[in-house]
Amino acid sequence: MSQTYDIIIVGAGIVGAACAAECARAGLKTLVLDRGPVSGGTTAAGMGHIVVMDDSEAQFALTNYSRRLWMELRPELPAEVEYDSCGTLWVAADGEELAEVRRKQAFYTERGVRVEVLDAEDIRSAEPNLRPGLAGGLRVVEDAVVYPPCAARFLLDQSKRHGAELRTSVTVHELLGDGGVRLADGSRISAGRCVSATGPWSPALTPGLPVRKRKGHLVITDRHPGFVRHQIVELGYLKSAHSMGKDSVAFNIQPRQTGQMLIGSSRQFDAEDTAVDQPILERMLKRAIEYLPSLGRLSSIRVWTGHRAATPDKLPIIGPSVVGDRVWLATGHEGLGITTSLGTGRLLADLLLGRRTEIPASPYSPARFEGAKA
Amino acid sequence: MSDQIELRVNGKSIRVAGGTVVAAAIALAGVSCFRKSVLGEARGPLCGMGICMECRVTINAQPHCRSCQVLCEEGMEVRTDE
Questions:
Q1: Three-state secondary structure call for residue A313
Q2: pTM, two decimal places
Q3: Which of A16, A59, A134, A254 is 20 to 30 A removed from B56 (C-alpha atoms)?
């Protein structure tokens, strides 16, 4: 038996959840489907860093817009979402990276983002466990941290309050060009439109979509409250994130409200499995210990992996697919999906409803990959 | 198992035989609560083989040490109340 919905969202990770919250709030009859549980994929492997980024104007626009939406949502977030406005501390190891601090300071300041430059002495007092001799850093004051699975569940609960339905353990096999989806059991659910929010798995539903899996590792320690106070990221992170080479690691650590430290990051293309890769894990932890020597004395209690959805231009894919107006996309968020989920949901709903978008949506349009069969 | 070792448990001196694990020294010192759970419940050794993590204490200012897996050393400072 088929039911009719205005919109079916495939994927109950944080991007699908944010899309559902916006669509339901706008009065659309919304159904969310996921083949697994809520947040069982990429969202469970995200650090939950709410961060404004400056790789490109379009990336800045979406991350800054999304961070504003998180700040607006903050009073409504339940305690288990663990919103913590600890800020980001970008660490400069040497003079070359300090020049990058100044470039970022100018970029952010021109665009109204609150930042503070730290010299070598400031950074010692801001984060005493960092190794001596670092050149300085940049504090992005209003960046924050959330716990992604609970944030996604909160957004889905919001959508349900506006009448949305959620079904988990339901596998979608096809997004139908005439509306709706075909499930693994062959049945169909009809809808005005469907949205693929399936992250690294989106090419299976949209063949030719230029989204690649990029594996990452995370480590969490036991409880040492106050060991670090900011989400700390090395400026060399940009070299790792930008490199299109096979494997890279960068120092990225986050204090959790439990007193635990969440440690990243690694990036690997062409690593489809979810097994822990000991050599890259070792490189990742060695990198972290280079920056925080006493980290080596703490115990890790769990290591896990996940896959990001990487696109060739480092921007997500949001809007109607090129196969037609009944199939929409909200995918390709790579390592920024927790931040950009809220902006994605709002942009998608604005585009669906023909409302004016608050930031230009064209940089994220699927049409930019016209050559590919998206 | 011969030479006596002196260490401190929560500031109190105690002498134990060489080869004694810290968990035993804590018990000899009359302390039963090795740590508190996140909800404030008392915890102490369960498995005695480094798996259950219930016997964690602070040794020489390093938190979360498994007391059942560490041998006593002369002058060691052990705290169960942090």
A1: coil
A2: 0.91
A3: A254
